[in-house]
C-alpha cells in the first residue's frame, strides 16, 4: 500500500480553483462509486462461491480498496496530502481501533488502511442511497445507540474481527476538544483483546460538521494519522464493576487524546 505523500510547502496555497474542481470531481466519483458497487460489483461478488463469512470478507476488502483509491485520487489531484505513522500496527484480530473525528473522510482513510475491518457507522448512512447497500453487504454495525449495537460490536471483537470506532459519535467541533461517549469504552471492556488509539490531525480544518464540501480552505489540506501505543482494556476491567470501569477507561481515553492532540499542536512549526 502506497503511504507516500508530498511535503507541505507554500506552493500548496496555489491552485485554489483547481482544488475546488478536483474536490467536486472527488465527491462525484465517490457517489458514482457507491452506485457502481450497488448495481454491478456486489451482485457479481454474490455469485462467487463461499459461505456468508467469505462473502462478507470480500465485500469489506472491496470497499476498503475503493476507499483507498478515493484517497489516492484526492492526493493525486492535489486536494490533500497525508502522512501515516504506524499503519503496520493496525488490523490485528480482536483489535479495537479508536480515533478522534475531525473530518468527514477520517473513516475513509481508516477503512482504506485496514482491508478487512468492521466499523461502527452512523445510523444516517444506512438511509443514504449511496452507502446503504455497501453497509449491508459488509455487515458494518449501525450506531443506533441500542444495547444490540454494543452486543454486536463486542461479539465482532470476540470473533477476532478488527473494529474501527469513533468514540465522539460525530465530527469534532472546530476549536473544541473531542468529547467521548462511554459506549466505545463499554465495547472495549466487553470484547476487545487490545485497544489501539489513532490520533488524527487535519491542517487546515476541512469537511467539519459546519462546512459543506465546496468551502475548501485557501491552502491544501494535510491529514496526519499517528497510531499510538496499545492499551490493555483488561487493566481497567479490574478497577471495579462494569459501569465504573467503563467510566474510568473513557476518562483515560478522553484525556489521552486531548494530551496527544495538544502535543501535536505544539510540535507543529
Automatic annotation (TrEMBL):
The chain crosses the membrane at residues 20-45. It comes from the Bacteria. Keywords: Acyltransferase, Membrane, Transferase, Transmembrane, Transmembrane helix. One of its GO terms (molecular function) is 1-acylglycerol-3-phosphate O-acyltransferase activity. Pfam families: Acyltransferase. Pathway: Lipid metabolism. The keyword Transport does not apply. Residues 95-203 form the Phospholipid/glycerol acyltransferase domain. InterPro entries: Plipid/glycerol_acylTrfase. GO terms for biological process: phosphatidic acid biosynthetic process. This is Acyltransferase. It comes from Pseudomonas silesiensis.
Amino acid at each position: 500500500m502506497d503511504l507516500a505523500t508530498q511535503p507541505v510547502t507554500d506552493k500548496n496555497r496555489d491552485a485554489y480553483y483547481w482544488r475546488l474542481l478536483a474536490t467536486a470531481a472527488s465527491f462525484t466519483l465517490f457517489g458514482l462509486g457507491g452506485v457502481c458497487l450497488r448495481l454491478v460489483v456486489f451482485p457479481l461478488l454474490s455469485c462467487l462461491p463461499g459461505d456468508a463469512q467469505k462473502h462478507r470478507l470480500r465485500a469489506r476488502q472491496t470497499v476498503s480498496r475503493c476507499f483507498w483509491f478515493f484517497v489516492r485520487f484526492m492526493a493525486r489531484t492535489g486536494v490533500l496530502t497525508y502522512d501515516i505513522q504506524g499503519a503496520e500496527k493496525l488490523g490485528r484480530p480482536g483489535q479495537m481501533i479508536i480515533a478522534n473525528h475531525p473530518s468527514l473522510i477520517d473513516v475513509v482513510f481508516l477503512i482504506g488502511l485496514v482491508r478487512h475491518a468492521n466499523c461502527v457507522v452512523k445510523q444516517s448512512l444506512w438511509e443514504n442511497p449511496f452507502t446503504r447497500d455497501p453497509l449491508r453487504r459488509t455487515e458494518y454495525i449501525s450506531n443506533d445507540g441500542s444495547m444490540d449495537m454494543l452486543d454486536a460490536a463486542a461479539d465482532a471483537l470476540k470473533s477476532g474481527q478488527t473494529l474501527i470506532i469513533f468514540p465522539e459519535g460525530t465530527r469534532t467541533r472546530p476549536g473544541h476538544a473531542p468529547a467521548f461517549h462511554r459506549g466505545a469504552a463499554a465495547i472495549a471492556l466487553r470484547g476487545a483483546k487490545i485497544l489501539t488509539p489513532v490520533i488524527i490531525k487535519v491542517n487546515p480544518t476541512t469537511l467539519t460538521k459546519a462546512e459543506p464540501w465546496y468551502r475548501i480552505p485557501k491552502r491544501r489540506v494535510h491529514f496526519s494519522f499517528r497510531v499510538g501505543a496499545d492499551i490493555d482494556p483488561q487493566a481497567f476491567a479490574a478497577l471495579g464493576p462494569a459501569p465504573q470501569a467503563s467510566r474510568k477507561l473513557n476518562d483515560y481515553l478522553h484525556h489521552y487524546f486531548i494530551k496527544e492532540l495538544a502535543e501535536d499542536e505544539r510540535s507543529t512549526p
